[in-house]
Structure formats: C-alpha cells, structure tokens
Records
---
Amino acid sequence: MSNDICFLAEFDGGAPARSALELAAGAAGLARESGGAAVALAYGKGSAAGAASLGSAGASRVVVLADTDGPVIALAAAAAATLRDDAPLALLAPATPNGRDLAAALMGLLGLPALGPVRAVRIEGGRVRAEQSTLQGTVITVSESAPDAPQPVIILALSGTFTPLEGGSGKAAVTTAPPTDAGALGAARVVESHPADAAVANLEEATVIIAGGRGVGSAAGFEPLHELAAALGGAVGASRAAADAGWVPYQLQIGQTGKVVKPALYVGCGISGAIQHRVGMQTAENVVAINKDPDAPIGEFADLFVVGDLFAIVPELTTEIRRRKGMTD
Amino acid sequence: MKIVVCVKQVPATTAEKRYTADLRLDRAAAESVINPLDEYAIEQALRLQEAGAVETVAYLSMGPESAAEALRRALAMGGEEAFQITDDALVGADQWATARVLAAALDKLAPDVALMGMSSDDARGSLVPGAVAAIRGLPLLSYGAELQLTGSTARIRRLTASGFDILEAPLPVVASVTDQVGEPRYASLKGIMAARRKTLETWSLADLGLSSEDLHGAALTRVVEARPPEAKAPTERVENLGPAEAATRIADWLTARKLI
C-alpha cells in the first residue's frame, strides 16, 4: 500500500485532454497532503510521446497503459495490474463516459470503493473524504471508504473540480505498463466511424457554456449564442427542448438525460430552468440567465437574472465583450 | 434471444428528499418512480421484441420490498417476467455491492443482453454497467443511442463529438442506453391488467449464493455527513433595461468576477 494519488490521464488528438491536466493538479495537491506521489495512468493516441509533459501538470510518475484509441474499458486489466502493484490511496477518474467505464471496470475487477461525482476532495487524518451534491442537489454528503475497504478509493470528478497548474516545471518519470490480456472487456470494438461535417464542442471540458432553450426558437436562433460563445472562448449547450426540436445536436444537451457540466460560467438564454435541466448544470460556479419571462424558475437560482429579449441582448453583449477584450474581426 | 433490463426504483425527480438519522436517504418518505433513464432501456428492449429480434424481456431490480411496484410498472409497459432481489442485508448498498448482487443474479438468469439505463437519477455515478461487465467477464457496450441484435452479435450506435461510432461485441453482453433510443411508452390499461398476472419472483441474497460478508456489509463506502446545501447569495435581478444597458450590466458583472 502507498499514499500515492493516481489519476486517469486521457490523451486526445496527441495531447493531454483538459481532464488530464485538471486531475494532475488535483492529484498533486492531494499527494502533498498524503505524503505520496501523483501518478498518471495515461492512455490514448499520443500518450507515449506526451507522457513526460504531464510532469509540468503535476504528475511525478506516468505509467502509459496504451498508446491507442478505442474503447478505454479494454485497458482495465492493464490498469488493474498497475494499481494492484502500488495500491495507492486514491484513483481520480474523469466523470466522462470513457473515464466512468474504466473506473467502473476497476471497481468491479478489484472490488474497490467508489465515490462521486464529487464537488470537492480532501484528506483528513489520512483518509480521503469526498463531498458530493446528490439527489438533484437537495443534499450535500461527505463520504469515505469503509474501514478495511481495499485501496485505492475511486473518485469520479466532473470537469471543473480542479484547476490545471500554470507554469509548472516538474519532470515525470515515464514507464510503460506490461502487455496484459484484456479478456472479454477488450471484445467490444469500434467497427464503423461516421464523422459529421463539423465536430461539436466537448461540453464536458468547456469552462464557459452558453446554453439555449425553448426560447431560442430555431436552429438559426442559436447563431447569436455561437457568436457569444466564440467571444468568451466557450461552447454552446442546450436544454432538452432545444435538442429534441433538432435545433442543435443531441451531444449538446445538458440535464437529467444529457450531460452534467461544471463550467466556471454558464449563461442560460431562453431556458426556463426546469429541474430536469438544472440537475445538469447546478454545480456551475457562476450562472447568468437571460429570459423574457420574469417568473422563469431559473430566476430563482441564477446568480444574475436579466429579464429581457435574448435576441436583443446577446448580440449587444457579444459586441461589448469583444470590445473589452480588444478583439477585432 | 433474451434481454434482462435492470430497473432501479428512485425518488421522483421533483420529490422532496430527506435523510434518516443514520445518513441514508429516507426512501419511504419520497414518492418513487422507475429511474427515468431505465425507462429508455425498457423501451429499447420492447422495440427489439416487437421487431422480432428478442423472444423474452425480463426485468431485474434490487431494492426494498416496495420496489416491486417499479417492476409491476415495467411489466405493464410489456415484457414477460420480473425478478426482485430484496434482503435486509442490502440496506445502504453502494454501487460496488449493487453491481456484485446484480452480476450474481444475471449469472443465474443468463440473458443474451443485460440492459441498463446510462445512469441513475439519484446518485448519477454510471458505474454499475461497467462493473457488472467486469465482474461477469463480459463485453460492455455503453451509452448506446440504439441497440441492434443480429445473430450472435450486439451492436450499439454511440454518438461522438464528431458524429457517431458503431461498436460491436459477441453475445452475451452488458449494455447501457441513453435517452436517444426513443420515447418510453405509457402503460395501457390492458397492460396494467396483464401485469398483475405476470410472474414476479423474489430472491434473497442466499438465493444468489451470496452472504453479507461477501458484500463487506453492504458497502465499501460510507456517508459520514449529510447536510442541506449552503444557502446561496440571492439572485441579482436586472429588469427594465434597454438591450445595450443590460449588456453592459452583464459585462460589468463578468468583469468583476474576472470571467472576461
């Protein structure tokens, strides 16, 4: 057993995903408290070449599981072998579909405790404690592993739970996991890939989200939201009503049956704020709402609620933000 | 071809929630429903049955005795039979224990596809499908927008950031689906009547060859504190401003919080 804090480091397009940088910073912080090391389990195309770069993000060691794309759950056996050797205190996993599947397989293979998605993690008296917002945000719970439960405890973290380090200069020692038979978990394969004309933003990694709802009215109505998102360096999201109407792709849906996001800034435009949407965005740090209905439920929980016509206000806001940022066409 | 859909009874999205003195959700106090994400899994199974790809649709649920109600509701939507695992030793079960118990029950039922919703509405961990696959040593097809069954293989269409992928695995598999499979049907009056005559079998832990010790009590985790969320600062309301003035107010607010 060790006091190390491991984390899953996904590579995407040859570089560490934002989740990898966030979890590296989170693991480094926790490892300082626990007296262990921050250890990355890296996977995805580019992870072998890019592994050392995780040093500046906070990792002191990196184990490359596989430099390949494909269903990440296939790496469960290799990850399990690594965790069995080290038995670290905790394993941080991104609360993305891939991260959850790999974490789930590790929970099942090794019989590990799992907590999350968490909103904060700390170490108290040598134990990892995780704070969660559950039951549609009606209750905050603090949880830990049961006494005598095996290590590590798996912690699922939404994007935005930790902040990537800036200007880090650490070096990470890189090793490669020995080849492991993936077994049945390696049997699910991608047999066809159908890229769309234009990729949609990865909402789960966006730090600014401009979301549109029924009040946006049409696909064309989302255009000003895209312009505002571009000015703020963010992504566009939607309520289920807007996704079901086909105004935006389903991948942009936030809420009960869609994505759960935790951006630094969420701007809801023409979104009423029904509970089914709220559960997907209530952990956003700053919530601004623009709605012409003064009685919209989002007015009850937004930090700033502007009553007015989004089609008049959003373009003006985009212009104002571009002006303040000194952006030109 | 047989599908077993795993169904969880959860407090209704809008129900008021309370925790008991020993920090567990007071499930008796809240109005309960079938986990909304599981309804999509039920719908997917019934559509495959209607298309002739599946002979039997069965349901499996772990929970208190009152969770039989969720299984009756599922049977009213369609399908043939239901199995409920209920045992005092399972009170407070966490995701690991749930996966372990469902895996044992699924080993007994041996379906071609064990189908689940992508997430439960109360805890939202989404770990049970992957853990069940790992424990049973079966492939996982997760987050499907559609499940297809052909011969000896299962396929899902999974939406990606840039379109969609088709994933394939040899049967038997564990699969999970999203709300893209199609709107769940309502139970008809005829369906509700028919459900009363369908088999609903109840199993204890011992029936699955498991003991409380196998499950580390019922959990590898424990809640040490439960409290209401912090009161948030009151909403700042801006009304009756022209568009340019409203935009300036928002920009000032963002600037003050270093968001621009």
---
Amino acid sequence: MSTVNALVIDDSGIMRKMVMRGLQEAGLCEFEFAEAEDGEDGLAKFNPRSTEIVFVDWNMPNMNGMDMVRRIRAQFPDRPVPIVMVTTEKLTGKVEEALDGGVDAFISKPFTPDGLQKRVGPLIERVLENKQQKKGGFFQRLVA
Amino acid sequence: MSANTSTTDAINPDHVQCVADAVGSAMSWVAGEEPKFDGEAAVAEALRCEGVVACISLVGDVDWSLVLSIPRATASVLAGRFAGFDIPYDSPDMGDAVGEMANLVAGEAKVSLDGIGLSTEISLPQVFRGDIIEVLKLPHVPSKLLAFECTCGPLWVAIAQSSA
C-alpha cells in the first residue's frame, strides 16, 4: 500500500492523535504524519516538495487555520496540495468561506472514521494518482 | 434537582435550551451515551471536589462564558472514551481533552443558537484543574447552572452572561 505524507495541524494534541487514528482506521492508505500546533507552526512544517495532504483545525492561537490555508495557497500556487479543514465550525457560511479560501474538504468535529473516509477518500485517490503519474513519467524518461 | 439559587431570569430560557441540547449532542459523541439533563442545579449541589474546568466564550448576539465542570472520576472515564485511549488525570492531555470537549459543546451551541437567529463566534478554551473546585455565584451576574449525569458520573455546564 502506498504511503502518503500528511501534515496534521491542531492546537489540541488529543485531536491530532484522533485525526491520525481516524485516518488509519479509515484504511485509505498508509500515512506518514507530521504534526503542528498552530497555523504558524503548520506553515513552517508545510513542505511544498513532500507534504501531500494537510488536515487543519480552524480555531487556533497565533495563526488560525484559514489564515494558514490562504498563505499556503498564495505562496505555493503551483502546488495544489489537498487541504482538509477539521473543525467544530459547521455553519454553511463558514463552510463556504473555507472552500472559497482554498480548502478542498470540510469535516465537522465530532467526526467518525466513516465520515473521514467519505470526505478524504477522493482526495487520497487524487494524491495516489498523482504519485503514480509522477512515477510513470519518471520511468518513461528513463526508458526514453 | 432543584432550580433556584444558581439562576436569575436574565438568560432567555430558549437560549438555555440551546446549550442543554448542545451538551447532549456533543457529550453523546464524547461519552458514547446521551447524558441525562437534570435541569438547573443549585450552586450548593455542584462540584465542590477535585476536578477539571474548561471556560470558553461565545460572543456576538449573545455574550457568554460557558464553563464545563467535570469531577475527577467523571473526567478520567470521559477523556478515555473521547480519545479512545486512557488519559492519566494528571497529564497535560487531560486539559487538552476537556478543552476540546468544551470546544465541541460551544460548537454545537453556536449551531443551535444560529437556528434561532443568533450569530456567535467561539473563543479558544482555557482549562483549569484543581483540588477543590467550587462554583461561587457572583451577585448581579445573570447565570444558569445546568446539571447532567452520565453513567460515568455528573458534570455541569454554567452559562454566565458577560454583559447585559
């Protein structure tokens, strides 16, 4: 099974553990996790070359999740890394604000492994397809 | 439970119901069971024991502090059910877990209040752990103290109005 590099950002260590466990239980792929405690930390740990998917809380100290998402989208416009917002916010206006701001999927806390699978599954498929294409392109270049 | 000493009439009963519903919804997920709402509690009945308290603000069309108070024995079981693994009572993770529970309650309250046309934003939680937690009622501060009971023990949620 392929491994996906995921960055999990939440000021609650318990929530980070729960997100990581939920993703593992969803059985979508193997994950290699990096963790960050707030938006600033998340921005510092986001690696445009290796981070393949981001899970971020909205309400955090120092820099909130939405500000971090906007910064990533502005700084790395050529790296459309999927970003999933995992938050207690759930009103329609907030969901729209997140999606308009560059978030690809929105998961309301509390969440279930099934909910994670439903929302995250298509994004993981996209990541794995991209990996496969890159690998295919690499071998094609080798053969050529 | 009796409803008298902890309350004033300044907080709209519909708003109180929103919070009670929010606690039911959030704690059902946390505890795996819907806590029984015992109504408004008298201050004398609440806590006065070792426990964890999380405070979070809702500001906007209401201006409240929500205070989730959980005795040690309840907190230990709830946190384990919430996280899916044991959390030692004295560990920093306990504060993290109870803070997140308060966050979930506030998130559900925000949705409930929005349903009756009230817009709010939620602060980050602050969490305290103490040997003897006692609810002290401040005079002239409109407040309600709501009591809940899970199979793992009691918990309380206080609503205090920050401004009139």
---
Amino acid sequence: MLKPEINELLTETGPGTACGDLFRRYWLPALLTEELPENDSPPVRVKILGERLIAFRDSEGRYGLIDEFCAHRGASLWFGNVRECGLRCAYHGWKYDVNGNCVDVPSEPENSNFKSKVKLTSYPLVEVGDILWTYLGDPATQPPLPEFEFCQVAPEQTYTSKRWQESNWLQALEGGIDSSHVSWLHAGGLKSDPLFKGAKGNDYNLNDLRPFFEVAEADGGLFVGARRNAEDGNYYWRITPWVMPAFTMVPPRGDHPVHGHFWVPIDDHNCWVYTFDYHPTRALTETEVSAMRAGHGVHSRNIPGTYRPEENKDVDYLIDREAQKRGDTFSGVRGIAQQDASLQESMGPIVDRSKERLVSSDTGIIKARQKLRKAVEALRDEGITPPGVDPAHHRIRSAAIVLPQEESFIDACQDALTAELGKAHTSV
Amino acid sequence: MAKPILANACALAATAEEAAYRIDAEIGSRAALIIGLDADAAAVVDRVAERPWGAARFFHAEDLSPEQLVSEIDTSDVAIMVATADADAAAAEAIARACFERGIMTAGLILGEQLAVAASVAALRPYARNLMVTNDEEDVAEVLRALRA
C-alpha cells in the first residue's frame, strides 16, 4: 500500500516532476536503431517522459532528437523531409539540423540572420547496441554511456524488440520484479515456448508453486532471489536483478539466451517496453531469432509495421477461452509479454496503490518502491546522484543455480551476478 | 443471438476516470506479529512500535513464553521476525514451526550489511518464507505500512 501522494511521486515523470527529474539523470532507450535504418530515413516521432520529440538521421549519418514541432507555426516535423543534412518542415520549409538549430528560413531574405535566433530543444541520441539512447537531463550531469551487457556483446549475439504498453511505467516494472506470478500466469509457456522449453529449471518451477523469496541490496538496485526445492535437499534459485530506475533481467533457462527489459515512460499512462535476448558466449541461432521475431519468449507479436502488440486492449487481447480451459495458457492470452501487459493494463492507466493489499511475498516490490522514493527525494532535496547512473552498476546479470541449503545466494553468486564479456552465464 | 455490448464489456473500460472508483470496499488492518530475535533487533522493534499502527503487535522473542507465543500466533495473519547479526535461530525455528502448523505466513527482516549478518540470514532462511536483508531500519516500518499492519 502506498499513500496517494507517494503513488503520484513515483508515477509522474513529465517535465518538472520529481520522478521525471530522476529519469532525466539516466541514459534511456529512445528508439531502436532499426527505426532509422539509413541516412535520410523518414523521421520518427518519439514521445518519452511526456516530451514530444522527433528523431532523424541526417545525410552524414548523424542522429538527432529534437522538439517535434516547428518553431514557426507549431506543425509537426514528422511530415518533414530529411535531406541535405537537415529536417525541413513540410509546411513552410523551415529546416533544422540534428542539434535543433534552424539552418534555413526560406521566406526570409537569403542573407537574413533570423535563422540563427531560432533553435529547438535537442537531446543527444547515441547508438549503443540495437538501441538509440538519449539523455534528457542537464548536460552538466550527463553520465557515461550505458554498459548493459546485452548492448555490449557482438551484434550476432543479441536481439532487441519493443512494444507499446498502455499503462504507467511503474506497474510494468513491478511485473519485472515480481517473480511470484511466473508459476501461475506463465506456466503454459514454460512447457511449450521454444525459448524456454527443455530446461531442467522448468521442472523445479512447475514442481514447487510456493517459492520462498529473498531480497538483497545491490549498488544499483536490488537482487530478488526466488528459491524452490531441488533434489537432495538443495535449493533451486532464480535471481532477478533490478537496476534503477527501469532495467530488469529474467533468470536464464538452460542454454537458452537470457532476456530482460527496459521499461521507459512514454507519458504517465503509457510506456515502451524494450525487450532483449542475448547469449553471452555464442551467436543467436536463426531458429532463436525467428522465434523472437515471431513474438515467442518474452517478445511480443506486433501488428506489422508498428510496435503495438496484436493482442491489445482494443481486441480484448484476443483472449482464447478454449486455450485457457485446456490449460495451454493460464489467462487465455497468448504470449508471455501480453499475458503480463493485459493484466497490468487492466489495473487502470495508473493503479491506485492506496487500495492494494500486498502480502509478504511482495517484499521485492515494497523494497523497490522504497528505494525509488528515497532516490527521488534525495535528488530533489539534496541533489544526490541516484543509484544506477554509474555504468559500473550496469555490469550485472541474472542467474539460475542449484545451491546447498545453507548457502546464501548473494554470497555464492557474486561472480555469476557480475557481467563480464565472454564469460558463460550461470543457468539451469 | 448476439450478446449486447455494455460499456464495461471490454478491456477499453480500463480508463483513468473509471479506475478512480475501484476497490471502494473498506480494507481492514493486517494482524501482524512483529518479533525481535536479538537485543539490537528488539530495540528496533521498540522504536517502530511507537508509531501508530492498526492491529500490529510487537514483542521481544526472549520475553515470550511458548504458551504466549502460540496464543499470539493464533490471532495473527502474518509473523515478521526482525534480526540483526545475532539472530536467535532456536527462537526463529519455534516461531516458524508454530506458524507453519497454523498456516500463518512468515517473513524475516535482517538489518545490517550482507556479510555482517550472514549467520542470521542462514539461521532464518529455512523458516522465513520471505526474507529481506537491508541496511535501512526504516524498511521495518515500510513493510508494515505496505502490509496495512
């Protein structure tokens, strides 16, 4: 349960809000590199933290992320032309470069200096892995680029997709921390999904539906361990890291690629979910990439040409009651991603956390909210840089492991939970 | 014959305006039993107990006779064990066993740096269904608030 004012504090991320200021201390995914595949590609609308922006790639391959609307009459630059190192408004031809500088006002005399007085808001846009990242904060506090392992490995080892989720970012993130729903909502997928099935760990998951949970502090966020009974009195542990503010990883299964998410606020009622899969020591196979593109694993099956899942709110998530009755899926919704999204969207655009009834197995969520609140307040009141900004905090992994009962997962898995290029992941 | 489509008959009904009127039935307090397992934890429990709570009850393990313990657990929804570096493993086992027999959820909050409290974590792990290791004393109150204790 959260007081309404704390719920507002953590869910509102627009300009001038305290949590918005927190997000503006991090590099955030703005769009996929595939959205601007070549020089002079059509511009792409980007809404992030409530700000409407336009992304483009100019004739020399430079990326720009600027205010979506032309300074002249406020028309959207999405209709504009990208050519000759700039984006020209389709209305009256005003032209902007990747830094938001107006470089041509055709209605003015050729030698007019008026254009030099016109500049749109602009933010850096940098390619790291399959993602174009932006930083929306004060340039004086811009941190080094992100170093999450999924965007550091070779291109053939990683795949990233994205989907639009029609809920506030925090209820989406909380799904990423909450391990206790997996054995219920996603039980069907463990048996059949090509990116999950066959792992020994699945048997532990399905044979013990009442896991014990352990939450431990990490420099950049938390580790949430879920333990189930294994053979000979050992425990099977699945360890989920959260790096503040919005990065989570799913513990791996067998030799399958390992996956995770970045939950990025679009505005207070919508978020982008960037979903990645990578293998730390080998290239992804064609079969694996095909499965990811088809929306298996934790990816979504999107409407062609968009990042909106086919199983969306408008069509009641294509719920299949027969599949539910047969036990193929627990909720009747196809795919792990939309199984989560359908329930999180059903909670309302921003769930009223003053009305919820948490139980002690929600300690991961309770602790994550507390860490977020403290970080927001410390930044607002004392200017303290929040956890997760330092790239050292990005070098983490999830893990799945069988340990003797007396061993602490956090002590036994120090190495397993630390990302290092080329090192095998710890998986069962 | 086609069924009539009502305003709340599809997922599109999940709007911000409508969500404001959800779950309006009164939600009561959780009968939480909070027990300090060692001297430092008992001091924390005493400090937290000074705040206003609903149905939460606070004890030191060393002050509870076996009969009192059972009596308190009988009227609880959840038992929360608080420990620091010197958790009393025997007390944790007694509490957890009594909870298990009655279907009462158990949780453990261990205060201190991970390495310094490793022994306490090991002592509580078999018995606490949910365990949090934290160096922030405020987490005890935070968890109780979240549980509506």
---
Amino acid sequence: MAGEITPPAILAPTDLLYRGIHPLYCQGGQLTSGVFVLKKKHTLQEGPSVGVARLVPLTSFHALMGEGWGVGALEASVPQSLTLTVQSLPDPRWGEHAHAHAVITGYQKLTDKGRNDVARMLRIALQRNILRSPAEQTTPK
Amino acid sequence: MNKQGSPPTASRTDEGLLTWGCYRARKIASFTRGVYDFPNATVSISVGPSAGWVEQLAGITNVTVGVASGPFITGRIGVNHVVTGLFSEGAKRISFGEAAHFVTGFIEDFVPSHCSGSIIYGKTETSSLLGNVQQITMVEPVGAATFSQIAVAREYSLSEQLSRLHQLPEGWDGEGAPRFSEATCATADTIIKGLWHITLLHSVSPTVLLGPLPDGSLRFECTYEDKELFLTICGTVVEVQSWQPRDAVESSVYSETGPAGAREYLEWLVR
C-alpha cells in the first residue's frame, strides 16, 4: 500500500531513476536537449521529475507519462557525480506510487554554462538506457 | 525487451561469426523501416524477430552497405546513398565517410580503437572484404555532386522540421510551453541556410538535430568528428556552446551572438 515505504530524502547512488521522454525530444532514437532542461529559477517542484525504480514498476511509471512518451533510465550516481542532488518529493498525482517521485535539483547554483553542461551529460546518460522508445512524432496532431 | 543474454566480449562466436567491437547484448529486431535512397526512392528493409533496439542511423555511406539475405535481415543499400533507419541497438549512426556491412543482423558498437563507426558483426568470409572500414572509404571518395545532394537534403529536412515546430500550439509539451515565435523561427531558418552553405563549402556533413525547448527556444545540436556545438535560438539571439572532445563534460565555449556570428561557430565545427 502507498505510504508503507518511506524513501530517504536523498537517494542512494545506486538507485535507478526512470525519466519520461516526450516524443518531441527524440528524433530517430536520438534524444535532444529538451529531455533535461535546467533553469536557474526552477523551484524544487519544477526540477526534472524522475521515478525511483525500486518504488515503481516500469510499466506503472510508463503509464504515468503522457501518451506516446518513452522512458529512459539512469543511476542516481549520474546527477550526483555532476554535483546535483536527487531528492525524494512525493507527488500525489502519482497515486499509489506517489513516493516513487523524486526530482533532480541543485543546479540552480550553477552558472548558465554549467547548467547546460550538466543537462547535456544527463541527456547523454539517459540516451544510453532507453527502456521504452517514445512514439515518433514530429508534427502537431 | 527480448534480450537474449549478454555474452562477453568475444572475437568469434559459436556461429563462426567474426565480431568487431564489444558484443554486449544480443537482440534481434522485428522491424520494417524505409531506407531512403536519395532523393526519392524508398527501399524497405525487413528485420526478423523482435523490436526495441532499432535506432536510426543517419548518414552517408560511400561504399556499398550490404544487407545479406539471411534469417534476420534482407535487403541492400547501395553506394552513396543517404541512409536512414538502419538497425542498431547501442550504435547510433554511420557518419559520413564510414561504412558498414550488415551481414547477420547483429549490430553492435565498435570499440573506439577499431574505428570510429558503429556496428558490425560480420561473417568470417566477409572480413577480408570489409577490412578496415576507414581504408575502404578512403579509396572511394564521394564527389561534389553527392555533397550537393546531402546539402539539399539536409536543408529540406531541417526546414521541414522547423516548419513543424513552428506549427506547434501553445502547451505543446503538456506543461504550458509557449509557441515558437516568428523571430526565433526566422533566425533558425537563417542558421539552416548557413549549414547548407557550409556543407557545400567544406564538403563535410555534420550531424544536425533541431529540437524544441520548453521555454520557446529552438536548439541546433550539431556534431562533427570530436566536436559538438549547440546553437540555441531565442528571437534573434543565438546562444553558442561547444565541446571538444565530445566526451568532455565542460564546454569550451559559451557565448551569445547573432545569426552571422553563429556561422563562425559552424565553420569551427567542420574545420
């Protein structure tokens, strides 16, 4: 049942994180920068959402994403190695998997250049492990 | 999905197939995808059972890329063809000037020390033909006409993508992303034309993706050899960021310029 597991506020480096991939951020299997956008003004809640794999099955996570979205995965150690933090942030919109929700944060302190650098590395890491390909979609419906 | 095990790196398999690079995860695809034989013809390639490992390989081959008949792959891609929709798992693309010979349908990354391409899992008897891919590509240079074709195709493709992005409604990302402004799209169009000129001028073909960002800006993501260049367009301003080598974490350049200034960085990319 939801609420039985209380994840730590800061996740372990070995935690696998799922990240939704909007179809427009993938061209022919290649992820583009939009998959991780980091802004200085982002609040904690506005940081890139991820799902903690040990707390939400892949299928359930995928179902939480929009139609046509894909799913990639990366270890928490990736953002952590880039001086970022992966912080648990339960999201009621995720229902029984609310506690699987986490956000990447800590980039607000970086320069514009630095934020782009780490966003690119996150995208590269995600590219290496795409679990569900997004629907090919480059035109508006 | 459909993983059939992850055998260790090997130079030869039980099936007598010679491999180049690391054979990390054997997957077989069930996939049919058009291979676009420039400029208009389409050649279908069918790949046997399973899916999920297919990624687009975009680029040009200047030697024959043969897809041998077999249980998994049938079809053939000819010489000097623009190739999209080839089949790969870890491999990403065949860059211009590289080549590949698909023989069994098992496709994997090269170890960097072997060559800079992707792919390849060949039958023993084809190894002498394939040899060093770089060597093969050097003896069959692609002419200016092909580069012209590439440039035209690239411009058309990017312009089409820009047009599609321009039509996106507000909230296209499901979270209130704004539409792309006229000024942003006009600047992007200027960049596309600059790419066209540079492709012709230098006879090179950098890989370019044009992607949207949720803040209403557009980003060209360009790679060539060991360089990567981001041109982020917001109105008439172009934010430039570049990395060399491509696996560098920290960018070497970060600045703002205009469309004319962006061209200088595109020149840098292909030099």
